[in-house]
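Course assignment 3, question 2. Fill in each field.
Student: A.L.
Task: Predict the tertiary structure for the chain below.
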Amino acid sequence: MTIEEKLIYLTENILYNESINLPKNRTDDNFIGFIKAIFDEYIVLLSASEITQPLLSEINTLTSGILSVYEEYFKGFPHKAYHNLDHVLGNIKTRLERFGTQPMEHSDNNFYRIRTGSNHAYTMGELFHIPFEKREMVNSQRYSIPGFPSLYLGNSVMVCWEEMGRPDLLKTQAVRLSTEKRKFSYIDLGYPPHIYNSILRDILFQKKKVSEDLLHQTHDYLVCWPLIAACSIHVKNKEAPFKPEYIIPQLLLQWVRNSNQFDCIRYFSVHTETNLDNHFLSFNYVFPVKSSNEKGYCKELIKLFKMTEPISTQYMFTIIGDSEKELIRNQCFNKDAKLYLGLRHDAPSFLYRNTDFALIEGFLNYKLPLNNIRN
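Answer field:
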């Protein structure tokens, strides 16, 4: 088969299959049994396809390794769980590097953060990562190790709002962060299968000559899918102190902290429904601190980013005149994204530029200068 025929085969027989859609909803109380069933179904799907035996063997090794991480963690040996994950990721390190090191588009070096609170004006530091002297405030989240500060950024104000549980937008303050670094090396968990498949099909539909690199990248994605899946499980018991759905993401963050090759993890939001027209709005990034001090902020992250002063969204909406709104919306890097009122393909749609999120982004991009972050 030609490269195009191989890619078409993968889109139609594997990536299009509903069984590999993410995120997954857990219904089984037996967590390891639930994960094993997901992996087994994936292996069965691949085994019935024309995937080569070496590729299938590599995926089998990865799934077995991830299961061993859970087993050691549940035995009370988190250090052994991390050791197993370190071994697993070492086996696919080349694929992770190839898949996650890409030149960034113009808007991809711009990120956003929001925080609730309107009683006083936040400082830049209060919209950066939690300072070291307040590390006791860092609790357990999907990509958050208790007591270990990290910097969480979104590709849009909308995804920040979704990740925070949709607070009252008028009671938030927002900032933009930007970096001049033209490449990030990141663990890329940012594409659920239906989005990766849509992007691939769009490339093939354009009938442009595709390179073998695209086939290699798709193989990278198929190999890494079990890792993406293990990091994309909806929490079954949200009020429970311990959430097994967070085991792999938290250990992966620790692995990135110890790595010299990767700066951060990019992951898709499990709180949003996306398609080809708007998936880039739902990218999240987590940058673990690369140093630790008694107080202040990570000096490596301070050097990496510049940041606007925080702006109260309520105040911003008050001072923007009607005549300025269109100009400001045009400064939103995400303005051409299309949102849908519902999940059907024929659902009514509207442009992101017409939302309050775009107005906030445009204001941050257009009105507020970027400054060095002070420690």
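Instructor remarks: The chain has a mean pLDDT of 90. Residues 3-103+182-288 form one domain.
Grade: pending
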